[in-house]
Specification:
Keywords: ANK repeat. InterPro entries: Ankyrin_rpt, Ankyrin_rpt-contain_sf. Pfam families: Ank, Ank_2. By secondary structure, this protein is mainly α. The protein has two domains: about 100 residues, Serine Threonine Protein Phosphatase 5, Tetratricopeptide repeat; about 90 residues, Ankyrin repeat-containing domain (Serine Threonine Protein Phosphatase 5, Tetratricopeptide repeat, Alpha Horseshoe). About 50% of the residues lie in helices and about 0% in strands. Helix 1 runs antiparallel to helix 2 and helix 2 packs parallel to helix 4.
């Protein structure tokens, strides 16, 4: 791929030791994106290389979060549930909390991704802090909130966390006029409906 640095290549092909050496020698590499806008931090988080992601953040806290189609490293990290992934998420939010509200090409925020994966710890972190969970109200291009997505996937605990934080999100409707309850019924998520 064009504009790929050696760090991009090392991460793309799973050479984490090489990536660590490159970061130590030239931390500026962590700020460069390739031709399709992938940053090294995005590649590390999307491939679940959390040790490398934390190293990138340690050596260069202002590292780019950019990825493809508007998906950022923050979107990617919430799809992983390990303790190290949660630690990485905490560091990323501290460094760039505004990224919580960044939507990808279909309008999904990191909270939508956490809801889809049923990542309760990530959901909790995304609802805390100076952004006070306002991402809960963000709708994707079809009008789906993170609550709709959690209902569709049947993730009750995530739904409960979202509703406890913002009870009025139960009233959000998508472009078809459907609430999260409608979505749960249509998806056959009986435990959510109960």
């Amino acid at each position: 791929m064009e504009k790929e640095t050696a760090l991009h290549v090392a991460l793309r092909y799973g050479y984490q030791r090489v990536a660590h050496l490159l970061i130590e020698v030239n931390p500026e590499l962590t700020c460069l994106t390739n031709m399709v806008n992938e940053s090294p931090l995005f590649l590390a988080t999307s491939k679940d290389y959390m040790q490398t992601a934390n190293m990138i953040l340690e050596y260069c806290p202002e590292s780019s979060f950019q990825g493809v189609n508007g998906v950022t490293a923050l979107h990617a990290v919430v799809t992983h549930k390990s303790e190290l992934a949660i630690k990485t998420l905490e560091s990323m939010i501290l460094e760039n909390g505004d990224a919580i509200k960044e939507a990808d090409a279909i309008g999904w925020t990191p909270l939508h991704y956490a809801a889809l994966k049923g990542n309760l710890e990530a959901t909790e972190l995304l609802l805390l802090g100076k952004h006070d969970g306002s991402a809960s109200y963000m709708l994707d291009k079809s009008g789906m909130s993170a609550l709709h997505v959690a209902a569709l996937a049947g993730h009750e605990e995530v739904m409960e966390k979202l509703i406890r934080r913002h009870p009025d999100i139960c009233d959000l409707v998508n472009h078809k006029g459907q609430t999260a309850l409608h979505i749960a019924v249509l998806a056959g998520q009986e435990t959510v409906v109960e």
